[in-house]
Design goal:
With 209 residues, this protein is of the alpha+beta class. Helices cover 49% and strands 14% of the residues.
């Protein structure tokens, strides 16, 4: 006959494994929520005029000595895509950043300020849903930790496990809804947002999932 402590030990091992996975999910969701890598892509912008001794393919230079003077009449002989350069950008719920031309670092702006006024309500709903998603994941983690430390009754432990599973499923549904609303707002911002922000190409980033 097997010792009665083995089923209890197995249950605690399963609960510990579930808690570990749920905790990792919570950490990843908080990291993604605070990041700006929900969407990544490029933005096509006109090359600036070269300043001073600037060289390279990221600016436009003329042969005349005063060709780069702001007071001189400047003629652009380049055609097609030669006049443009692609800047990488990434955006999240809170802010959007793009690389600087001929400079190191990035320029960041609030994504909420870029969103069309008519779509900001949907964006705030997405933020609220994402916050509830994180809160429910946290509640699920707390319940799982209680299950691990709860020794009184196997039945009570199963009840806690079932309730934490329901909470985790609700969190997943809220997360999907939040992501769908953000995607809708991002696409509307691509079409109707400021001219100096609209991306040329974009795709989902690592923190979107």
């Amino acid at each position: 006959k097997m010792p009665s402590s083995i089923p209890e030990a197995d249950r605690r091992h399963r609960a510990s494994a579930a808690f570990s996975l749920s905790f990792l999910s919570l950490v990843f969701s908080i990291t993604a929520f605070s990041s700006s890598y929900w969407c990544e892509g490029t933005r096509k912008v006109a090359k600036p005029f070269c300043k001073g001794d600037s060289k390279g393919d990221l600016c436009i230079r003329f042969n005349s000595p005063d060709g780069n003077s702001s007071q001189a009449v400047q003629y652009i002989w380049e055609t097609g895509d030669d006049k443009f350069v692609e800047k990488k950008f990434h955006a999240g719920i809170w802010y959007s950043c793009e690389e600087m031309i001929n400079e190191e670092g990035e320029k960041c702006r609030s994504f909420i300020s870029l969103t069309p006024a008519s779509d900001r309500g949907v964006l705030w709903l997405s933020i609220v849903a994402e916050l509830l998603y994180v809160v429910l994941l946290l509640i699920g983690n707390i319940l799982m930790s209680v299950e691990i430390c709860y020794y009184s009754s196997v039945i009570d432990g199963l009840k806690i496990n079932a309730f934490s599973a329901v909470v985790t499923v609700l969190a997943g549904l809220l997360g999907m809804v939040a992501h769908m609303m953000y995607t809708t707002v991002f696409q509307m911002t691509v079409n109707l947002g400021p001219e100096d922000w609209r991306p040329h190409t974009w795709d989902y980033g690592w923190s979107y999932g």
